[in-house]
Specification:
Blueprint (H helix, E strand, L loop, with lengths): L1 H6 L12 H5 L1 H14 L3 E3 L7 H5 L5 H21 L6 E6 L2 H5 L13 H17 L4 E7 L2 H11 L6 E5 L1 E2 L2 E2 L5 H5 L8 E7 L6 H12 L3 E4 L5 E2 L3 E2 L9 H7 L1 E4 L7 H13 L11
Parallel strand pairs: 1-2, 2-3, 3-4, 4-7, 7-8, 8-11
Antiparallel strand pairs: 5-6, 9-10
């Protein structure tokens, strides 16, 4: 989302990041969702990743206004799906980690110094608002820490909306340093968690993580890594995201694939085309 918005000329150097456009230019959010759908995407992830009550309050948005903006994020994705005509498309409401709201890179470290109970209290109001907006599912994404994953899994319990749980990782561990087997075990026995996986990570870390997620949970696995560049106050390094790697992710057990930071509609179009040409049809999984 952010990459595509920047390509359209928007400056996202703001603590709200993409969520600022929910306030300033909602039509642009719709346009970007539509561009991904036209590229072959089946699932839109809403622009709510960095939208929090705390962050919006710092911009002078009161609680009622924040609730309206969170709801709007789901409505805009629905609008884009409807505008693209026939075909079943899903809307996944993005629930970013606590660290995203701090806007200081904490989502790449975890270990915030908060208890699981405190994280539950912080996440619950936002998750409840997004759930009330009736997305197809919740994307509990870019989670750096198994403690936060536990809190999120507790929060979604009983809400009646399926969710995927996706960690951001470094090699074979979470960003907080926990072994992936331990981290994915958080999802076991949680009926609301219908898929697990990784996002906002290096492409080369995907195959191993997918295999661990599948072995530990038996659930469908999702993978949407970054371009391969690293964030250090700006994007550094080389792009390593290539659609040629995606059949390997599918072979390892991934059911849903895509891209995160610095991966745009052009790359998603290549992913869809590669899966078709590899004999792995670009088909939609069963609705959760």
């Amino acid at each position: 989302m952010a990459t595509a918005l920047e390509a359209r000329g928007h400056d996202l150097s703001d603590p709200l990041w993409s969520a600022r456009l929910l306030i300033d230019a909602p039509a642009e959010v719709v346009a970007v969702h539509r561009s991904f759908f036209r590229a072959g995407a089946d699932i839109a992830i809403t622009a709510s990743y960095q939208a929090s009550f705390d962050g919006l309050a710092a911009r002078g948005v009161d609680r009622a206004g924040a609730e309206r903006l969170l709801t709007r994020s789901v409505e805009l994705a629905r609008e884009a799906a409807a505008a693209e005509g026939e075909g079943e498309r899903w809307v996944a409401a993005s629930v970013g980690p606590y660290g995203a709201a701090l806007a200081d890179g904490s989502e790449y470290r975890g270990r915030y110094g908060l208890t699981v109970a405190a994280l539950r209290r912080w996440h619950r109001p936002r998750v409840e608002v997004l759930t009330a907006a009736a997305p197809d599912l919740l994307a509990l994404e870019t989670v750096p820490d198994a403690d936060e994953a536990e809190a999120l899994a507790d929060v979604v319990a009983g809400l009646g909306v399926p969710a995927w749980l996706s960690y951001t990782i470094d090699g074979d561990r979470t960003r907080a340093g926990q072994p992936l087997a331990e981290a994915f075990a958080v999802a076991v026995g949680r009926p609301e968690i219908v898929a697990v996986g990784v996002n906002c990570c290096a492409p080369q870390d995907v195959p191993g993580a997918v295999a661990v997620a599948r072995e530990v949970t038996g659930l469908p696995v999702i993978a949407y890594p970054n371009s391969g560049e690293a964030w250090d106050g700006g994007w550094i390094g080389h792009r390593r995201f290539t659609a040629a790697d995606v059949p390997g992710w599918v072979a390892a057990g991934a059911r849903i694939v895509g891209g995160c930071c610095r991966v745009g509609p052009e790359e998603i179009a290549e992913v869809a085309a590669t899966l078709r040409s590899s004999g792995k049809p670009h088909s939609r999984p069963e609705r959760p």
